[in-house]
Specification:
2 copies of one chain form a homodimer. Chain A has 3 domains: 216 residues, HUPs (Rossmann fold), CATH 3.40.50.620; 77 residues, Tyrosyl-Transfer RNA Synthetase (Orthogonal Bundle), CATH 1.10.240; 73 residues, Structural Genomics Hypothetical 15.5 Kd Protein In mrcA-pckA Intergenic Region, Chain A (Roll). By secondary structure, chain A is α/β, with parallel strands linked by helices. Chain A contains 17 helices and 11 strands. Chains A and B meet through helix 7 and helix 8 of A and helix 7 and helix 8 of B. Chains A, B: Belongs to the class-I aminoacyl-tRNA synthetase family. TyrS type 2 subfamily. Chains A, B: GO terms for molecular function: tyrosine-tRNA ligase activity. Chains A, B: InterPro entries: aa-tRNA-synth_I_CS, aa-tRNA-synth_Ic, Rossmann-like_a/b/a_fold, S4_RNA-bd_sf, Tyr-tRNA-ligase, Tyr-tRNA-ligase_bac-type, Tyr-tRNA-ligase_bac_2. Chains A, B: This is Tyrosine--tRNA ligase.
Chain lengths: 405, 405
């Protein structure tokens, strides 16, 4: 049962950065409601990034909300684009190998995508299916839709052209291919991050050129990571991965800066906009952000691990961090990014007089006298990748909290 | 029997504007001589201009000289390029019609080409044969050979880009297609006018990219027309068409400005460079250019009409113009371009008191008392398209020479 557009619109628009355009979306939803026929939602994915985090998931969650409203999603794996990524290689063999690799990547990727999306309302297609069949003449028809100057308006092309960094002519076809995928699918809506503006709007241009109804373009904002400043990214270490253990996920959400709480509700949960409005009001009324973050951590962890695991994670969090087993005031030790493992910081611990020597430290670990975030360390090499806020306890009274810079 | 490169080189290089490069040409000729295997000479033709004049024939004559040296020519009709000329048209039907038209044009064109080339040593091919078979992936491989910046170096693209005149992305493929034709043919030499520099050099780039030996690029200069200033062109009226009657051709060659005599020997005849050298010396020795032009007119007319017709044309020329049947000093009448027919100029003739009235003029014509370039006018509408230098004789003593402006 597809609901009327008035019910759907607020959910569709929750957290959206830009939409082109709202009136067209309303008309599509109206027709979809009248005919009880789901809209086709398109998402193009480049299966090169194997690990999905909450930043990637912003678009996926929005799509999941559309699925919950009854619509159908088509994920386009850009394997044809990948295949021509470096067409200077002359050997056919290499291209074929690339295909296998792309398919393997896509499978891993889809496993993670289905941690968010509903498989029954999702179709996965590879764009080589139709793109590889285009003739030179059809490719030229595609090329003729767009001028060189228009293409050079795209930020990255413009910069490269101005900096005299060569742009291969084939690169102009990436946006054209992505746009042509929308023609092939007759997509009603395409989603993307704001960095995808040019490519997603190309879909509208091409659909119009082929005499089809234009897709609505919905752009989602970028989600800042735990540092509250930079875009969430694995390489910056400020991320929450969708595959992380429930305890880790729960604790990381608790580290979200207070000023991002509402944004995380908007972009990292499927909560109704009315609920997000209530959260805003509670914060404005002076409620302790920590309590609201407990709700947020609970909601997010539940999305990826279910109720039972989430309950355990919350209990663990409260035992280890909240119920004062760790003192409120802990000295902070600053560690350089890249030096953030237990192995690396033993000299720092000696210098800070938390341990006398490496051998004492190893003996204490062997005696189970060392804990990391409330969990006993089993051996020296454990707890790789310390992040800001992690706590190390040595014996009963020696505590240190880390800050990674 | 293919001769040694020392014999061929001077003929190959006669009148050439630019060659890239001479050493490579020598090597190819050497190998061709050693193996007694003809080189493959490529000429791409755009069959849009139906009437060939001596300006067009400059490249054809050079190729004819190569045929006489034993090499084989492949004429490429760019019908695929024509087919995508305006790919915005959505109807397949139109494209198919275009094909028919291109083929009809090509046939007319080839009939004229064979007024210069030797049919037995010429193959005509349509580039749709291989280009229409390229897949999207292969087209991208082609596109990846060249950067956007490199393409925008081409004069016309550069001007349009700077003047913000849109360049469709498909237009970048015209030079790529022409270059790919060289890959397909494994051409040894490609000829073109100097305006074809970018496109012909693209053939070298692509052959290298495909691991083939690069073609030698030979560029022929533009031939000025009878005005001695502008490039020979039908629309400027300063041309000598290869299909013109022997008398007309002979007379027009006699109108070539003296300072272009050597250039016409170089570019419009197949005479050996040693002979051209002798002509230079005769002119330097103060021989009357008119006598040398008689030789030139004889050679050129013979190339297109054979000895017998040429002898007649020469006789006609000498009777009508040389043997003083027409006075040396004839009053000149200036006529606007577009007004240059007998019908148009009757009022001018009245005004200049050459005739009393239109009716007198028509009566004189009926009495065979009016000649045009020495030939009796049969009726009023004859002698369409007066050109500069044409002479009208009315009765015995009234002469007028025309100058078209």
């Amino acid at each position: 049962m597809i609901q009327n557009p008035e019910v759907q619109m607020p959910i569709m628009l929750k957290g959206v950065h830009t939409i082109v355009d709202e009136g067209e979306l309303y008309d599509k939803l109206k027709r979809s409601f009248d005919e009880q026929k789901p809209l086709t939602i398109k998402l193009g994915l480049d299966p090169s990034a194997p690990d999905i985090h909450l930043g990637h998931a912003v678009v996926l969650r929005k799509i999941k909300q559309m699925q919950d409203l009854g619509h159908h999603v088509v994920i386009i794996i850009g394997n044809f684009t990948g295949r021509i990524g470096d067409p200077t290689g002359k050997k056919k063999g290499r291209a074929a190998l690339g295909d296998e690799q792309v398919k393997a990547n896509a499978q891993t990727y889809c496993e993670q995508i289905f941690k968010v999306l509903t498989p029954e309302k999702t179709t996965v297609r590879f764009n080589s299916e139709w793109l590889s069949k285009l003739t030179f003449e059809e490719v030229m028809k595609l090329a003729a839709t767009t001028s060189v100057a228009r293409m050079l308006e795209r930020d990255d092309f413009q910069n490269r052209y101005q900096n005299q960094t060569p742009i291969g002519i084939h690169e102009f076809f990436y946006p054209l291919m992505q746009g042509y995928d929308s023609v092939e699918l007759q997509a009603d809506i395409e989603l993307g991050g704001t960095d995808q503006t040019f490519n997603v709007l190309m879909g509208r241009t091409l659909q119009k050129h082929w005499g089809l109804e234009k897709q609505v373009a919905i752009f989602m904002p970028l989600l800042e990571g735990l540092d509250g400043v930079e875009k969430m990214s694995k390489s910056l270490g400020n991320y929450i991965g969708v595959q992380e253990a429930p305890e880790v996920m729960f604790k990381k959400v608790m580290e979200v800066p207070d000023e991002l709480i509402v944004k995380y509700f908007e972009l990292a949960t499927d909560e109704h906009p009315d609920m997000v409005e209530k959260i805003k009001n509670r914060l404005a009324d002076g409620e302790n952000p920590r309590d609201i973050k407990l709700t947020l951590a609970n909601i997010i962890t539940k999305l990826y691990h279910g109720s039972e695991e989430t309950a355990k994670a919350q209990e663990f969090f409260e035992t280890a961090f909240q119920k004062k087993q760790i003192p409120d005031e802990i000295p902070i030790m600053t560690i350089q990014q890249g030096q953030n493992t237990i192995d690396h910081i033993i000299p720092n611990l000696v210098e800070a007089q938390l341990i006398k020597s490496k051998s004492e430290f190893l003996r204490l670990i062997a005696q189970k006298g060392v804990s990391f975030n409330g969990e006993k360390l089993e051996k020296e090499g454990m707890a790789q990748g310390i992040i800001s806020g992690d706590v190390l306890q040595i014996g009963k009274k020696r505590f240190v909290k880390f800050s990674i810079v």
